[in-house]
C-alpha cells in the first residue's frame, strides 16, 4: 500500500471515531440544530480528518475544528473566520490554489502542505479537555508517521496545539529536546531532520486584536515553506 492509500485509509478511520462521548454528543447536536445562517446545509457532524497531500513537506497543526466551520464543511479549518485568515495567508505565500474555502468540494488544492489538528472533533467553547487531547493523539501520531518520509517542517498554531504536537512528534520518531521547548510566536526548534515553528493561533481573539496580523502569519508560513524546500 502506498503512502496516499495509507493516509486515505487513516482519514476514513478518523472520520468514524466515537472515542470521546462529550465530543460526539456536541458535534452531533450542533449538526442537528445548526446555525440559522447555515440552515440549508447538511453538516458533516463527524471527526474532521487532515487535509492535503500524502507527500507533504510541510504540516500545519492547529487546535480543533470549529462547530460551524470544519464540523459543517468536513474539511479541516474551513468555513469560519479563523480558517479564512489561514487559507488566505496560505494562498498569499503560494501554498494553496485559492484564497477561500467554503465546502469540501470547492476545488481547493494545497501545494506541498497538509493541515491537521491534535483534536479532530469540534469541542464545546472551542476547548477540548486534556483527556480528549490525549485520547485523540494516536491519530496525529499515525498521521505524522505516514508523512515522515517527506516532512521537513511544521507550523503549530497556539500553545494548546504546541503542547499536543510535541509528544506526537516524539512518538512518531523525532527526537524532541528536553526540557520541551516553550511555545512562542516565531520560535524555531530543530528536530532531527525537521524544523518546528510556533505561531499564534488564527483565532478571532488574536486576529481582531492585532496580536496576530496577516503579515505575521505570512512571515511564519513563508519561513516554514522555505525550510521545507517548497517554492
TrEMBL record:
Segments forming domain Uracil-DNA glycosylase-like: 49-221
SUPFAM superfamilies from the UniProt entry: Uracil-DNA glycosylase-like
Entry superkingdom: Bacteria
Pfam families assigned: UDG
Annotated keywords: 4Fe-4S, DNA damage, DNA repair, Hydrolase, Iron, Iron-sulfur, Metal-binding
Matches recorded under PANTHER family: TYPE-5 URACIL-DNA GLYCOSYLASE
Family indicated by similarity: Belongs to the uracil-DNA glycosylase (UDG) superfamily. Type 5 (UDGb) family.
Stated name of the protein: Type-5 uracil-DNA glycosylase
